[in-house]
Amino acid sequence: MKKFQCDKCENGKITKYLHIDNGFCYKCKGTGKLNYDPDTKGHNAQENINPEIEWLEIQSEQEMIAQAELENWMHANNIEYDYH
Ligand SMILES: [Zn+2]
Fold first, then answer.
1. Tell me, what's the pLDDT at 48?
2. Domain edges within the chain
């Protein structure tokens, strides 16, 4: 199957999110490649690009940002994660 360069990251890493999960790209699952052309709306990629999925991506980005802010806040306040 033809692979396409992910339009969100470089080789599976999102540079601006390097501080969270090492910038792991959820769109291509860290591979840097997509099974569909991100530039092509419609055609055979239609089922992969719909507003609902776009919205989920936006939501997961928002969660990553919120997580980063929480971590920054915890670092600033010298609070360690403790799940036990
Ligand atoms: Zn990607």
1. 57
2. 4-76
